[in-house]
Amino acid sequence: MNQRATYEELQPAAAAVQTRRRILVWDLPTRVFHWSLVLAVTVAIVSGEIGGDWMEVHGKAGLVILGLVAFRLAWGFAGSTHARFLNFLPTAASLRAYLRGRWKGQGHNPLGALSVFALLGLLAVQATTGLFGNDEISFTGPLFALVEEGLANRLTGLHKQLAYVLLAVLALHIVAILVYLFLKKDNLVKPMVTGWKEVRAGTSAAKGSWTALLLSIAFAAVVVAFASGTVRW
């Protein structure tokens, strides 16, 4: 009887441990940014590989990428809880805790955070070098005329080289998603589509304000206006 009572007493505790609840992890602006970036980068890669008349599309995709990165930088300071850089900035302590299986949190884990910063930085440099580049045939970037031809050629070379680095980083990103899905049984894609995630512990992210959203969009628009040559430097 005592053994049965003990078992029955443990059942509620075990059930409590297994209880999961739904929380908001990614707000709508962050999700729209993410999938817009996926589309823009895909278009940029494909159009760049095709070349020729598609270079105009490549250039426009680059401007979109630059605008999206600018938006994310602004949203990273004024956006929702898990979108803010200070809330997922990786530290030596958080990396050690994560590698030892002791890290607890929502949003980007420390290794994922490193990937985010690396990808944003790489895309910013890649898009910026493209502004001054050329294809040595008929296409030139919108800011090509602002630099000497020798510098423009060097920036074009860097732009082409960084494309391979970008492909490698994207491949690692996809591999990490698959590892989490099949080995850790953690679907990272679903929350980036719906915004919601089932967790055992945690609270929903506080959303960013409309003012912060409008300012972030305005900042991105200004960056694109200058980058496209619409506004003179």
UniProtKB/TrEMBL annotation:
<feature type="transmembrane region" description="Helical">
    <location>
        <begin position="162"/>
        <end position="183"/>
    </location>
</feature>
<feature type="transmembrane region" description="Helical">
    <location>
        <begin position="111"/>
        <end position="133"/>
    </location>
</feature>
<dbReference type="GO" id="GO:0009055">
    <property type="term" value="F:electron transfer activity"/>
</dbReference>
<dbReference type="GO" id="GO:0022904">
    <property type="term" value="P:respiratory electron transport chain"/>
</dbReference>
<feature type="transmembrane region" description="Helical">
    <location>
        <begin position="32"/>
        <end position="50"/>
    </location>
</feature>
<feature type="transmembrane region" description="Helical">
    <location>
        <begin position="210"/>
        <end position="231"/>
    </location>
</feature>
<keyword id="KW-1003">Cell membrane</keyword>
<dbReference type="GO" id="GO:0020037">
    <property type="term" value="F:heme binding"/>
</dbReference>
<dbReference type="GO" id="GO:0005886">
    <property type="term" value="C:plasma membrane"/>
</dbReference>
<feature type="transmembrane region" description="Helical">
    <location>
        <begin position="57"/>
        <end position="75"/>
    </location>
</feature>
<dbReference type="Pfam" id="PF01292">
    <property type="entry name" value="Ni_hydr_CYTB"/>
</dbReference>
<keyword id="KW-0812">Transmembrane</keyword>
<dbReference type="InterPro" id="IPR011577">
    <property type="entry name" value="Cyt_b561_bac/Ni-Hgenase"/>
</dbReference>
<feature type="domain" description="Cytochrome b561 bacterial/Ni-hydrogenase">
    <location>
        <begin position="25"/>
        <end position="195"/>
    </location>
</feature>
<keyword id="KW-1133">Transmembrane helix</keyword>
<dbReference type="InterPro" id="IPR051542">
    <property type="entry name" value="Hydrogenase_cytochrome"/>
</dbReference>
<protein>
    <submittedName>
        <fullName>Cytochrome B</fullName>
    </submittedName>
</protein>
<dbReference type="InterPro" id="IPR016174">
    <property type="entry name" value="Di-haem_cyt_TM"/>
</dbReference>
<keyword id="KW-0472">Membrane</keyword>
